[in-house]
# Entry
Amino acid sequence: MFAAFDNFPALLIWLPLAGGLISFFIKSEKTARSIAIVFSLLTMGVMMTSLFFSTPELFVYNQVSYVWLPNLGSSFGLILDGLTSVLCLLTALVFPMVFLLVPGNRYSNANRFYGLMLLTQCGLMGVFMATDALVFYLFWELALIPVYFLASIWGGEKRIKATFKFFIYTFVGSLFLLIGILYMYLKTSNGSFSLVAFYNVKLTDVEQYWMFLLFFIAFAIKMPLFPLHTWQPEAYEQAPTPVTMVLSAVMVKMGLFGLLRWLLPLFPLAVKQFNTAIIVVIVAGMVYASLVAIYQDNIKRLIAYSSIAHIGLMAAGAFTLKSVALNGAVLQMFSHGINIMALWIVADLIEKQTGVTKISALGGIAKKAPRLTIFLVIAAFANIALPLTNAFVGEFMLFNGLYQFKPWIAAFAGLSIILSAVYTLNMIKNVFYGEVVGSVEGYVDVNKTQAMVLTVITGLILFVGIYPDPFFKMMYETVGLIVNRYVTI
Amino acid sequence: MNAIILSALWGVLMMYTGFATKNTRTVSVVALLGVLAVLVVNWMEYLGVSFFNIDTRGMLAYNGFGLIFNTVVLFSTLVYFLLSGREIEKAGKTPSDLYALIFFILSGISIIAGFKSLLMLFIGIEIISIPLYVLAGSDKSNLKSNEAALKYFLMGSFSTGIMLMGIAFLYGDAGTFYLEGVNAGLGALTPMKAIGMVLLLASMSFKVSAAPFHFWTPDVYDGTPTVFTSFMATIVKAAGFFAFLKLFETAFGKFQADWQVLMAVVATLTLVIGNITAVFQQSVKRMLSYSSIAQAGFMLLGVFAMNIFAKQGMILYFAAYSVATIGIFAVLSKFKDHSIDAFNGFAKKHPLVAFSMLICILSLAGIPLTAGFFAKYYMLLAVIKDGNFIWLAIVAILCAAVSVYYYFRVVQAMYFKEASHEEELEFSPSFRFILLGAAIIILVLGIHPDYLTGLL
# Structure
């Protein structure tokens, strides 16, 4: 079994797909939940095992390619290399945690709920591992469709409108991406959609500008970057929390991933041309989002805006093209996914018990639920990127890259860190400390499952914060390839 | 050639079945057998077995492209008969007549599949159109149906007049009706040829309901009994597009640079008008008629680009669009109330039918893993390949995004809203499984379009 490395990428696709399809046909809601948990744990197991083979020398073997549409020049190609391993690991970790946290009786038609969730996982894995542009595009869309149904069926009051806005935004973006991909395809020498063929395409600088624009819009909407972020707070607020977790922890990383795998290596001339302007806009957006977050009275919207600021920092760092910032961005993608999971879990627990999401209507939870408070405080520290938490390592490297790029930009972006401390600590103060208000009276502390998941998350936060080295060892080579594309021009 | 003769003969046979039996079910079964037989003989011709060797003096000639087109159309008709047979039986007093008319239309379509001369084009289009006027008015007691038939007839004959005028100009210039003859001669576009070409472009645009010649479409589609709207909007439209493509490829291929801008304008107008107007419709039936205009805009991109991708894409588009639209219309024709709200909570009551319909709608919207995605993919690829008209591809995708808006309103009604009023609908098991079969075809072509496009 250990000789067959190429099974890993395939298994990561087929396991969630199989689990999802099986769930649809299970009548019993309890069984459906167990199936979802088993399949997501299996996926996680495969992912964990593959990490032992994720050294740069072995990446070559960690790929598969099936014949799919030879006449179109597309083959079903997947790879698990340094960059994708980090993101697939995040995906593989998030889903079992989400499933464990959802109580068995929470959603009607639970079989469909779990089925769609697993299909989303399949789509996400595909996006991260695809080595063929058409496959990438298909998975990019496929990850979206189940999420659309999940959020529209099980979401909040204004779910249909909010989710539809999200869907239309991303759909428009991905259609631009499709045009870009088709243009690149026609420019390849052998009529192929493979990543390698795309890397070898020679474009004039004007062509690069246009292609850059088409790809960038798609990725920027997905992340989302200011000013294309308007779908995000509503969607996060209205989607059911498990979906919001997936959306914010994993799905927005699709945009960042697209940046690293496709945009930066493919259009170096255009990136060099536009990166200063883009970084300035992103940084302005970060500060703007942080300021908006301060004035939010709704926990969910606060987390949503805080996420815009954090994602912006990663995108800005990636555009600096500094090796340190790119490595930091990849690590931070993982860390941000874990941290925001923790914040959503806490927000969801509070909402479920008190029925309130307004910060001003809460208070004193710490007295009632000391264990929950400990977890929250660690997650909040990670959100502010205090040392010894995972986000510190990533954000430090990102700021390092920004500083190397233009010191004044780094200084301005630093504002967002200060602001994030303001809104995060403010939230903790108002919600957890102070007088116990009426709605919190009967608050019960976390149960065993919740405590276990939160412990895992806290463990990951501290582990990555103290010893991030394994991640860098894994990704260093792959990220280096991106930087190398810029050495030759 | 096999298909023309057999479908014409079967049309005559259908008329006599009306005398032979009063059982409408039997009539439907005979019709089903007929279209199956025509499908088989057409496929045999593709494999090289021809039953009739009639000397047409080169006015009709079949190649692989034409025969595959005909196969797709006949197959769609088969799906149509399977899904809508019951509705055809209910549509008029004597379903045998209606079936006969449909077979005559199929005969006309088979002529279109192989025309080599402007005369055959004219005859084919007329054989398609005249029975259609009757079908539009088949609900005799309904005023709207009468209005639709009259409107369609008046507008249709007007456009036929324009077509004849165009053909006359071309004959005057080239001295021949043969398409190759029109294309032959020196490279320059003479004024007479140019006028003939523009007139033909206008009349063909009318037949495929391309803007600005689309005004008849919503009224006619709305007034026609739903079961025949389905036929008009899919199979007949596909035939119109095939004629359009073939005419402009064979007769005016040399002058592509001259008419391409004109075609780009027509395509843009059709896309924009069709999609924007569809957004405001409250009735699913009217929404689908504007959506058929919008989809025509996408198919026009194929006529516009006219390269290998365009041809493969057209065939795939015909299949994807026809099967999906026939499926949706088949469900819709069971409803008395055609408004979008009528679909509220539909998925809870009829999960299987709703799921099949969902696939059809996703396909029309061009979501990946459905045939509709690859159909649009080929059209975009064809336009981008052409080089100078990337803006047209951008317009097309923006319109596709708009189309998601109105298609998904039906999805939202079916899946996310509670049932607002009770209309008891019955779907027989066979209907449900055939519809599911159609959905599966759409999915298979969406995963592996090579099965169809690889034939070319």
In short: Chain B has 19 helices and no strands. Chain B has one domain: 2-453.
